[in-house]
Amino acid sequence: MDYDAIFTAFYRLFRGEADVPASTDEEYTLGLTLANNALNRWCNYDGTYWKELYSTLQASAQVSPALVKIIASGTSTYVAPTDMREAGGSIEIKDTNGSIIQTYHIVQPEQKQFLDENATYAYFTGNPNSGFTLNLNPVPDATINGKSIDYVYYKKPTEYSVGATKSEIANSYFVVHHMLAQRFQIERNYGGYQVAKRDSEEALKNMQQDNNSGTWADPWSLTDNSGTVWGF
């Protein structure tokens, strides 16, 4: 659901009216703040790593071509996407066919002092608030000049800014009910707040359960067969 659809569902539940305010109305603007507060609650919930927030540099570059990163011989630093929160495990250098021709394993910046200057590794400096910079060691030479950089990273959710904005959250009705809870709290309607808060937290816990259970073909935890006997 985009923000317009979320706001429509929220307002109709809040006011019990079919007519919804236009985007110029202050209720619509307030809703943006409430919706983004819901996203913040979701993305920071209980230390959960949401599957929807994993991406790759190449996938992000398809949405925003400015994110394309090409190796330049003699250049060791490359700006990371602004929505990055954490890096994955390695940096892949790919040719025009998408084949991996070199890998840089990611280490923590403080580990650099213990590594040989000729070792192949990468690290990120910076933070999620002011952005990250990728550092490659050794400095790329002509053998990989012009090749593309790719890596997995964990990102911040896309915030709602205009009516057509969609975020990555799996269940948009969590946002709807969390907005309702906040709005009822502002109105000091504590009965409505309790109901909406309960509904939003239930939706959040269900998303976490789905997120952490893997798929039917590839569960995230193995079945405990310790009480069975081999061959029976």
State the gist of this model:
With 232 residues, the protein is an alpha+beta fold. 33% of the residues lie in helices and 19% in strands.
Structure write-up:
The chain has 2 domains: 3-50 and 169-207, no CATH class; 56-155, no CATH class. Strands 2-7-6-5-4-8 form a 6-stranded mixed β-sheet, with no helix packed on it. A 3-stranded antiparallel β-sheet has the order 1-9-3. With 232 residues, it is α+β, with helices and mostly antiparallel strands. Strand 6 (121-127) and strand 7 form a beta hairpin. The protein is elongated. The relative contact order is 0.18. The model is unreliable at 228-232 (pLDDT under 50). The chain has helices spanning 3-15, 26-43, 57-63, 172-186, 190-212, and strands spanning 54-56, 77-79, 84-87, 90-94, 100-106, 121-127, 131-137, 148-150, 152-155. The termini are far apart. It has 5 helices and 9 strands; from the N terminus they run H-H-E-H-E-E-E-E-E-E-E-E-H-H.
Based on the model shown, name its key terms.
elongated, disordered C terminus, 5 helices, alpha+beta
